[in-house]
Automatic annotation (TrEMBL):
<dbReference type="InterPro" id="IPR011042">
    <property type="entry name" value="6-blade_b-propeller_TolB-like"/>
</dbReference>
<feature type="transmembrane region" description="Helical">
    <location>
        <begin position="349"/>
        <end position="367"/>
    </location>
</feature>
<keyword id="KW-0732">Signal</keyword>
<dbReference type="InterPro" id="IPR053224">
    <property type="entry name" value="Sensory_adhesion_molecule"/>
</dbReference>
<protein>
    <recommendedName>
        <fullName>NHL repeat-containing protein</fullName>
    </recommendedName>
</protein>
<keyword id="KW-0472">Membrane</keyword>
<keyword id="KW-0812">Transmembrane</keyword>
<feature type="signal peptide">
    <location>
        <begin position="1"/>
        <end position="31"/>
    </location>
</feature>
<dbReference type="GO" id="GO:0005783">
    <property type="term" value="C:endoplasmic reticulum"/>
</dbReference>
<keyword id="KW-1133">Transmembrane helix</keyword>
Length: 381
């Protein structure tokens, strides 16, 4: 009798456990909500965003205060770097973490009417942000910087610590080695071969090569804002090829790569594109397009903890237009997780499979219970 009563209890426990698990899956709790981080820093207007996987926080740059800050999951912001050797009011643009050397690389640029300045800065993350180098980036021979200035816009880094910096004004790529030696690396004629989008407005008509990522197989991908094209650039030769895509990424800005599956994310002020390739980026496909909040002026995308995708709402244009000078400078900015419905689909299939199993188990349990009760009845009577 005692053995059948234990069995009886476990028959009750399992379906209840299962129901709890199923309930958790069907009605996702806070753990499954889109992660939105608001952080307060008056007048910051950050353009660049990256994730530091070691210290588990985001890093954002400032529009005019020569500072770089960490932002935690919970929105706690701290000043990591304050570099007064940078020209007054200089802007921090693209950021990336060099994990091999534990460094932070930052594109530095002075907007008009400040004197022209484009450089790459490297900071040692092990020593709390001590500067390793500040390398001015060379202009093309014969170029007059006072007429059209270079713009060091975004940066990617390879496993040896070489940095690749896009010049969005002049359509070429610089290389800066781990000791800070800078040179012009790729000036492919392809970068000037594509038609500027017909609907390109003043905000990005003159903006060429922009977001850049390093792919471990010895090449880089770079996106061009005013044409919406993506190029594959050889790490050694600097030779470029046009990536064939099923659409143009018009007004593209920052770019990031998810390591797990090689997905590429490209952000613009209105949307986030998700791209995949089966052949190492001879061809690629845009498989999802997610609408973003135009008012927040998203400029950068990064991959955070557990492969989550985040965009930065830094409202940079508002800052550039000068409202930061007045007392009413904006105080709050945001980093927001972005979900792809198309990717969520896989999880849903698992949910249906689980429900199916659950139902089968329930039927089996009912059947066993019935047998048990009939047996017990028999014994009692
Ligand atoms: C930097 O910005 C401040 C505040 O807007 C301004 O007062 C100052 O003149 C600027 N410095 C330069 C060099 O333009």
């Amino acid at each position: 009798m005692s053995s059948s009563s234990t069995r009886c209890r476990s028959f009750f426990v399992f379906p209840i456990l299962f129901a709890v698990v199923l309930f958790g899956l069907l009605f996702p709790s806070s753990a499954d909500k889109r992660h939105v981080i608001n952080f307060r820093s008056p007048g910051l207007y950050p353009e660049g965003l990256t994730w530091d996987p070691r210290d588990q926080h985001f890093l954002v740059g400032s529009l005019h205060s020569r500072t770089i800050h960490s932002v935690s999951d919970a929105g706690v912001i701290e000043t990591l770097i304050s570099d007064l050797d940078l020209p007054e009011n200089a802007t921090i643009l693209g950021l990336t973490v060099d994990s091999t050397n534990r460094r932070l690389l930052a594109c530095i640029h002075s907007l008009p009417p400040l004197p022209p300045f484009s450089a790459l800065a490297a900071y040692d993350l092990r020593s709390g942000g001590r500067r390793v180098f500040l390398s001015p980036l060379p202009s093309l021979p014969g170029d007059d910087e006072d007429i059209a200035r270079d713009v060091a816009n975004d940066v990617a880094v390879d496993f040896k610590g070489n940095a690749y910096v896009t010049n969005s004004a002049k359509n070429f790529i610089w290389k800066v080695d781990r000791d800070g030696a800078a040179s012009i690396f790729s000036r492919s004629p392809l970068f000037n071969s594509q038609p500027v989008a017909a609907d390109a407005d003043a905000s990005f008509r003159d903006c060429g090569l922009n977001g850049i990522v390093y792919i471990s197989k010895g090449y880089l991908l770079v996106v061009q804002s005013n044409t919406g094209k993506v190029f594959k650039v050889d790490e050694d030769s600097g030779n470029a090829r046009l990536v064939l895509l099923n659409g143009d990424l018009i007004a593209a800005d920052g770019m990031a790569r998810r390591r797990r599956d090689g997905t590429i994310m490209v952000v613009s002020q209105t949307k986030l594109w998700l791209l995949k390739s089966q052949d190492s980026w001879s061809e690629g496909v845009v498989y999802d397009e997610i609408d973003l909040d135009l008012e927040g002026f998203p400029t950068a995308v990064t991959v955070g903890e557990r492969d989550r995708i985040y965009v930065l709402y830094g409202r940079v244009m508002e800052g550039i237009m000068g409202s930061y000078k007045e007392e009413g400078a904006r105080e709050w900015f945001g980093i927001e997780e972005v979900w792809s419905e198309k990717e969520g689909g896989e999880d849903k299939i698992w949910l249906y499979v689980l429900i199916g199993f659950g139902f089968a188990y329930f039927c089996f349990w009912r059947f066993q219970m019935k047998k048990l009760i009939t047996n017990m009845d028999k014994k009692i009577t």
